[in-house]
Amino acid sequence: MTDEQRLFIGGAWVEPDGGHYEVVDPATEETVGRAPEASRDQVHAAAAAAREAFEPWSRTAPEERAAVLARAADIIRDRLVPYAELARAESGATTGTARGMQVGVAAARFRRYARVEPAEWAIPPQINEAGPMGRAGVMGALAVRQPVGVVTCITSYNNPWANPAGKVAPALAMGNTVVVKPAPQDPLSVYRMAEALEAAGAPPGVVNVVSGARPEVGEAAVDCPDVDMVSFTGSTAVGQRIAEVCGRSMKRQLMELGGKGAALVFDDADIGSAVAGIGTTFSFYSGQICTAPTRVIAQRGVYDRLVSQLTAYARHLPIGDPREPGTVVGPVISAAHRDRVESYVELGRKEGARLVAGGERPRHDHGFYVAPTLLADCTPDMRVVREEIFGPVVVVVPFDDEEEGIALANDTDYGLIDYVWSGDVARAFRVARRLRAGGVGVNTVGRNMEAPFGGFKKSGVGRDVGSYALHAYSEVQAIVWPG
After folding, report:
1. Confidence label for 128 from pLDDT (cuts 50, 70 and 90)
2. How far from 101 is each of 106, 424, 441, CA to CA, in Å?
3. Long-range contacts of range 75-79, CB-CB < 8 Å, 24 or more positions apart?
4. Nearest 5°: phi and psi at 262?
5. Contacts of 404 (CB under 8 A, 6+ apart)
6. Residue 130 pLDDT
7. Within 23-121, where are the H helices?
8. Which DSSP string do the residues of 145-202 spell out, in sequence order?
9. What is the structure's pLDDT at 446?
């Protein structure tokens, strides 16, 4: 695929002012396609189109909006194979991941928000006694969810389908209109999503997509006066800059930022389960996922056995072309990111960590591969323990008792998702409640897709997923009247 992609603004496919740039396959280093580089004026035009479309779309019956989302889900599902092939080529994900966890999850999210839910609820009446403010009476009240307005959705490169779908679908379901700014590394899939929504009957201006490799594109999508809310998934550093801009004009924001997930493994844990769960850091998106259990905190009674089994697990994972059915670990997104991950591995060695797996670049003629890497005997002050690496790298820190384990887990700037492995379920839940994280997995890395998702501390602001996303993309209005 070498076609030149156009922008999607106000229901029209528009030539970009800034020309095009190459999108590169991380596995082959070949050109996947040419993505459009929007100008600041074009980003503002997209927001203006969304503003114009907002009033009629927000007044459209929820059932009609849901029908558009349902048709989009069907179109995405029908085109799963070509859509997944593009996602695999752009992101470097394995074929199975691209089909199941990228395009498949996107279709499921559009289908989820095609379900109309009540947008208002009654509040118990208030009985007022007679007094200086008037006669006795009863005041009724109703809480109503109203759309926020125009939402800028800035999406991450690690999942070019599920991540934007998780923003666009609930935002549209609530009656908002959107300007989507995809990650520069793999934006082409988001344009396919826009095509599906267009074919599903989304009116012009309801969905707009503007891309670019220059930071000015994202900046324009955030600071534009027509934008009421910014939903961002990405690094904490970029999220902080976006939040500063949003704060100046009081834009609403939803931030899903970095993570350094702690995995507390107690002496009585099922080690096989823990190894398989922690091992997803190596295999799932090659560690490029903020929810990964990258920081293992292992009780001393099980420490050596856990390190040994994690080492064997990491060393035997097949690394290679993500198109091949036997591949488990594909490439990271770019050469620059590969260099960054490798520099952290070298830093860990210099800090005194013991390298027990990985550390050498896999032998491939092309592609940006990083071997699954395990750093043992780490200490809490090491940068590899404290900073998000975003690659297939796991660090292991020992602990003695429950209190120390909890303290080590909470000793971080992040707080997205932590994990606890223990055969004592009562203890696991007790520990989970003391962890300063937006989510905790007990003996699993699986997720309930209706559970709220978001982080404590520098891992984000707000919650989405399930019904919580409908709250995130809405304002609550109170209507009161005398009974």
Report:
1. confident
2. 8, 31, 19
3. 75/196, 75/199, 75/200, 76/103, 76/106, 76/107, 76/110, 76/193, 76/196, 77/104, 77/107, 79/192, 79/196
4. -90, 135
5. none
6. 86
7. 40-59, 62-78, 80-91, 95-97, 104-112
8. EEE-SEEEEE--SS-TTHHHHHHHHHHHHTT-EEEEE--TTS-HHHHHHHHHHHHTTP
9. 94
Query: In one letter, which amino acid is 41?
Result: D
Read off the pLDDT band of 132 (50, 70, 90). Answer: confident
Mean of all residue pLDDT scores within the chain: 96
Q: Which pair of tokens denotes residue 438?
A: 């937006």
pLDDT digit string, tens, across residues 181-222: 999 999 999 999 999 999 999 999 999 999 999 999 999 999
Half-sphere exposure of 22 (CA within 13 A, CB side): 9
The DSSP symbol for 365 reads: S
Answer whether residue 13 shows pLDDT above 60. yes
> What is the three-class DSSP state of 17?
coil
Question: Nearest Cα to 451, choosing from 459, 436, 435, 440?
Answer: 440
In the chain the domains, ranked by start, together with CATH numbers, are 7-257+459-482 (3.40.605.10), 262-453 (3.40.309.10)
Residues 73 and 114: their CA atoms lie apart, in Å, by 9
Question: 426-440 pLDDT, tens per residue?
Answer: 999 999 999 999 999
Whole-structure pTM value: 0.95
* Angle at CA of residue 39, ends 35 and 40, nearest 5°: 135
The answer to whether the CB of 190 falls within 8 A of the CB of 180 is: yes
**Whether residue 122 has pLDDT greater than 70:** yes
3-class secondary-structure state, position 474:
strand
Dihedrals phi, psi of 481, to nearest 5 degrees? -155, 155
Alpha carbons 238 and 215: distance in angstroms, whole number: 11
What is the C-alpha separation between 139 and 342, in angstroms, rounded?
Answer: 64
pLDDT(155) > 90: yes
At residue 3 the predicted structure's pLDDT band, cuts being 50, 70 and 90, is: confident
Residue 135 has a pLDDT of: 84
- Residue ranges of alpha helices (H) inside 352-401 are 383-386
Strands 417-421 and 393-399: unpaired
Q: How many CA atoms lie within 13 A of 331 on its CB side?
A: 27
φ and ψ at 127, to 5 degrees? -95, 120
CA angle 205, 207, 77 (to 5 degrees): 140
Residues 46-61: pLDDT tens digits?
999 999 999 999 999 9
Query: Any idea which residues carry the catalytic annotation?
Result: 256, 290
Contact (CB, 8 A) for 446 and 273: no
What proportion of the chain, given as a percentage, has pLDDT over 70? 100
Report, as an integer, the average pLDDT of 135-144.
Answer: 90
